[in-house]
Amino acid sequence: MKLKKIIEIIKLLILSLSFAVLMSLFWTVDYYIYVDLVINVLFFVSIINIVYVFIYENIIMKNRNFPAMATICGIWFGFLKFAEIYSLFMDAGVVSHREFLIVVTVITLIFLGFYIYRTFIQSFKIKTDIRIRPYAMIVLSFISAIFIGTILLFLPVSRAAGAPPLSLVDSLFTATSAVCVTGLIVVDTGTYFSQFGQIVILGLIQIGALGIMTFAGFFTLFLGEKMSLYSKITTRHALNDIGASVTTKFIRAIIFTTFIIEIIGAGLLFIEFRKHFPLGEAIYTSVFHSISAFCNAGFSIYSDSVTAFVSNPLINIVMMLLIIIGGLGFFVILNVLNVIKKKKRRISLHTRIVVMTSIFLVIIGAVVFFLLEYNNILAEKSIGESVLVSFFSSVTTRTAGFNTVDFSSAKGVTLFFIVVLMFIGASPGSTGGGIKTTTFTTIALTAYNTLRGRPMVRFFGREFPVKVIRKAIVMFFISITWVTVISIVIGSIEDFDMMRVLFETVSAFGTVGLSTGITSDLSNLSKILITITMFAGRVGFFTLMLSLGFEKRTEIRRPEEKVIIG
């Protein structure tokens, strides 16, 4: 028997024994004294595995091999070892915070299970070709990010000194809100979370906005590797079916464009924040709000969002521009840049629809908000401030979630109008949610052309494919049904005004993050329903359905028969 195989079998036995010890923690506390030993062993096994692969496989055998599983597990086991998680929550054999330790143990078992599986496959050279559906991989990537974020936010290090423990439901809610770039909160981000917790939230926002598949593709290219066909297909679906041949260039462009815009935004915000805060705090505040604004997340480290800067033109304009650019979508941004650089001859129909619809909604939103709230929220403000607030509110209500005024004081009719804007949301391929601007425009044009008796939908000399029209109608119907059902269920559970419940639900679905102040007072069941709504709004109903296997099939045509409508 070769030495390599013997080493693999010994590693397999160590990992299996460690798995058994950790499993025993679910029904007895007798073996908690061995947990630290097990974590140390697993960490060193991972490190030895990594070193072995790099030295023996890559240098000596000249095989290009990266120990991905060992590296991931090594990071997790190293975190448990150096953070002394188990020791921190154990006292003389009596386990405290058992709920938290169970969650940590489950994560460890998941990592360890995959590690054992990979070791078993390598030891006995079993060939596998298991492929998860591309759409399912997208959904799983978001779930994984939420799962990890939940655990990190649950840690004591994520809380500010003296802050009470965060429940699992609230931790899950916050992580989902960050990954789905929503901005709804159950605890105040700036006062409850430590700087570590705030950075975790910021990281989740960035990952959730760009998509894990985009980051995975970028790091694959960064390491000099070529993306596999499966990775290209999966990333293509995550980027709304762009051509596989341009996926590599598109990923690079997305990452670099995002960081450049966020850096410029942070620099402009720093000009004003430096006047109010020390240097370090000004830099941190600028970066946090620039990323949160461009990603349309709506998270702020201030309890009142950015209401303190309601009359500051620079901060308002910069944040509006970041929100608008982020809400247009990467396809639009790159299409415009390519036209400017003369790499493309013309602006695409998609870009024209998105830009025109966005401008229309921003202007209409500002005018309506100004007229409805002139004698209410805007009563004590000057004309200049009222116009600035109106435009900011129009921009942010579509998907961003920042506010310079208290929306809980708004009129009922204003809240309903904001609900409409939130339901429409941002644009495809952007960091926002909702049914999207293109869906709204497609349905509006379909209605217009139908009323005019035209058989086809035309715009700028182009006809819309029938499947696009059908998809827009289905998207609208599913979305409004979901929002209605969830609102009714939450309204029957909670003792809040139905308008506020509808506002909260649509805010979650549109990944907006605006609230009338009822989020933290919701019951756990309502929070879970809002959490699911945020996830559905970010991932999309079509992606969710396709991930479950609802694929198109060849259909047999049937005879047509007229149905009377209207």
Q: How would you explain this protein's 3D organization?
A:
The protein is mainly α and 566 residues long. The chain has a domain at 1-130. Helix content is 65%, strand content 1%. It contains 23 helices and four strands. The chain has helices at residues 3-23, 35-60, 68-83, 85-88, 98-123, 134-154, 168-179, 189-192, 195-210, 212-222, 229-238, 247-273, 279-294, 313-328, 330-340, 349-373, 383-399, 412-424, 437-451, 466-493, 498-509, 524-539, 541-547, and strands at residues 90-91, 94-95, 458-459, 462-463. The strands form two sheets. It has a two-stranded antiparallel ribbon with strand order 1-2. It has a two-stranded antiparallel ribbon with strand order 3-4. Helix 6 crosses helix 11, helix 16 packs across helix 17 (383-399) and helix 21 runs parallel beside helix 22 (524-539). The longest helix is centred in the C-terminal third of the chain and has 28 residues, at 466-493. The protein is globular, with a radius of gyration of 26 Å. The termini are far apart.
Structural class: mainly alpha
* Strand elements, count: 4
Extract low-pLDDT stretches.
92-96, 219-225, 242-246
- DSSP helix fraction: 55-70%
Which descriptor suits the 3D outline?
globular
**Average pLDDT reading:** 81
Biggest pleated sheet:
2 strands, antiparallel
Number of DSSP helical runs: 23
What is the subunit organization of this protein? single chain
In whole angstroms, the N-to-C terminal distance is 79 Å
Q: Secondary-structure element sequence?
A: HHHHEEHHHHHHHHHHHHHHHEEHHHH
Q: How large is the radius of gyration?
A: 26 Å
Strand order of the largest sheet: 1-2
Strand content is under 5%
